[in-house]
Amino acid sequence: MHPILRILHFVKPYKKLAVLALVLLTSLVFMDLAIPRLIQRIIDQGIKGKNLSVVIHTSILMLVISLLSAIIAIGNNNFSVRVGESVARDLREAVFLKIQHFSYSNLDNFSTGKLMVRLTSDASAVQRLVQISLRIGTRAPLLIIGSLILMIETSPQLALSMLPILLVTSTLIIIFSVKMEPLFRIVQQKLDRLNTVLQENIAGARLVKAFVRADHEGARFETANEDLTHEMTRVMQFMSTMTPALTIFINIGIVVVIWVGGLQAIRGSMTIGQLVAFANYLVTTMTPLLMMANLANVWANGLASTRRIIEILDTVSEIQDVPNARSFPDQARAMVAFKDVAFHYHGNNDRNVLKGINLVAEPGQTVAILGATGSGKSSLINLIPRFYDVSSGQVLIDDINVRGLKQDSLLAQVGIVPQETILFSGTVRDNIRYGRPDASEEEVIAAAKAAQAHEFILNLPQGYATHVEERGANFSGGQKQRIAIARALIMQPKILLLDDSTSSVDIETETKIQTALTAIMRDRTSFVVAQRISTVLNADKIVVIDKGQIAAAGTHAELIKSSTIYQEIYESQLGNGLADETG
């Protein structure tokens, strides 16, 4: 579908305001076109006929028309702004909601900077496009058409002599408009890159300072900034040639009118009033052309941004509910099984992150996933809630393929504590009950106690009502992790996924959290991804992942005797206790 049609889809809810704006605009055009005819009347009937009454009455009429034009223009501007801003708001909301439904794979394809530009700069460009189209963008063509008709009516011969100039001018505008749209698309891409670098540096400002990389990041920003400046300069230089070129043709047109029309007036085949009216209509025709030329950048920019927004809106989530998908069973035992699972990212069949995974987690078991960085631990548990779909094989919950379950129903039964702890601005209480806004105060406190967060929360200035700053900047890493654990526990999930979620807390606190989780998750299935072997010692089953495959599985007592990899991890972290364990 053409971008213009997509824009009209968003304008449709405000068609009454848009039509009213166009009606006022049409009235304004008729008034503008009446002025040259009234000037002709003053010259031919008033001044030439020495009739003061005609001059006075016509002048008063012109003043009244001018006043009405001003009032109508204000009304048109008001309605146009309302439509433009409403469309921009709806576009931002549509893009935002679309992003919320993206799968992890979709999010991998769009950087934060790109999405931010589409929500801000691109939406604003479309807003300007709609607003200008309901004002000058529509007024200019109507003025051109009306002026041409009245020019022909005033002097067909003189109008015919203007036709080549008008055709050349119109052709120039079309050429400029067509060439500018791809230029603006490049500009927006450069803006994407600039915003990505900016977002990364603002989010990682402390890390940049800690590693003394300010100069390096400054150079990255300078490169992105220079690229954007270079492209913007190209666009502006290209645009700057348009106005002088069109002005030349306008001046040529005026010279032709004065020359040819003057000769006709001398011969008596044309009155002075007609000549002045014709010259006014010519200016009324050419000025909108010049105006459209100056506004071509708005249209080009708006269309380029519309295509970029459509790219987001037309993106299909890679994770979809299958036809007749079922809800998560209320009485589910939550047995999780991986059957011959293989997985790769972004269609890269040659580089499987996971392969040949066969694993069963019985109801109520705690399964620990242990392995080196990049071995595929997080990828494995991300397959359970369908953040990604398996490339081959099956992930089953109570013998039901997760692909056959409704996503919302599945996610409602899976509690997740991600590797990267995210807190939202608001209160501590709001963050804990993020997944269950209707949770009672008692449930909030119980979840916080289980996560070993209750004590430090009570010591905060306002307790559970303490404000959480952006990205949880006023909390330590360990505090954020404990709040995130409480957020997952309050949902009372049948399956709990902890992705290295206690890495920022001390051993004592971690032990307390594990003890509390053991009681809470007695009838639930949990997966714990860990780098620290102390986290997994008491798990019902420990799975060692090596290069995307299960290298060993069993209890701590079993693995310490049978798995060389597990022994090496144990020895490297806990030291000289291996002989005692194996003895």
Characteristic terms for this protein:
single chain, 583 residues, alpha/beta, ABC transporter transmembrane region fold, six-stranded mixed beta sheet, four-stranded antiparallel beta sheet, 12 strands, elongated
Overview of this protein structure:
- With 583 residues, the chain is α/β, with parallel strands linked by helices.
- The protein has a domain at 3-313: ABC transporter type 1, transmembrane domain (ABC transporter transmembrane region fold, Up-down Bundle).
- The chain is 63% helix and 10% strand.
- The chain is built from 21 helices and 12 strands.
- It has helices spanning 3-11, 15-47, 52-100, 104-109, 112-133, 136-154, 156-203, 205-210, 214-240, 242-267, 272-313, 377-382, 407-411, 428-432, 441-450, 454-458, 477-489, 507-520, 556-562, 564-574, 578-582; strands spanning 336-343, 354-361, 366-371, 392-397, 400-401, 414-417, 426-427, 467-468, 495-499, 525-530, 541-546, 549-554.
- The strands form 3 sheets. Strands 6-9-10-3-11-12 form a 6-stranded mixed beta sheet. Strands 2-1-4-5 form a 4-stranded antiparallel beta sheet, with no helix packed on it.
- Helix 18 links the parallel strand 9 and strand 10.
- Helix 2 (15-47) runs antiparallel to helix 11 (272-313) and helix 7 (156-203) packs antiparallel against helix 10.
- The longest helix is centred in the N-terminal third of the chain and has 49 residues, at 52-100.
- The model has no long low-confidence stretch (mean pLDDT 81).
